[in-house]
Amino acid sequence: MTATHPTTRHLVGRSEDVPEGGRHVVDVAGTTIGVFRFKGRLYAYENVCPHQGGPVCQGRLVPRVAEVLDEDKCSRGQRFDSDDLHIVCPWHGFEYSVATGAHPGHRHIRLRDFPVDEEEGNVYVTA
Ligand code: FES
């Protein structure tokens, strides 16, 4: 959860505006927020990359790239990990897990998150 204390629940769209594996970017109380749905769960992050402030929530969504190792720990190439969807910041390519908001190599670098929920076909962000 964020260090700040959001207080107001805002309607940000209909459930169908946030398809599985997709995103919906909205302005909420003066802050641009990306709402994502992955494996049926909703996540909401400020559209500001911790690197240099790029519009991270508008970047490409791609599965995490994982190294394939053999029994001797030698690389046998790479594969996509469909269990971990990443947002790729369009400015310099920093990646963040949609499910955690964290950079995969530096877990202390993370997106600012917001509470998000869904009720009767509507999506709400508390900010
Ligand atoms: S501002 Fe996002 S990677 Fe640099």
Automatic annotation (TrEMBL):
Claim: Iron is one of the keywords in the record? yes
**Per its UniProt record, what InterPro entries does this chain match?**
Rieske_2Fe-2S, Rieske_2Fe-2S_sf
| Keyword check for Iron | yes
Boundaries of every Rieske domain copy: 9-125
Protein keywords: 2Fe-2S, Iron, Iron-sulfur, Metal-binding
Q: What is this protein called?
A: Rieske (2Fe-2S) protein
Q: What is the originating organism of this protein?
A: Saccharopolyspora rosea
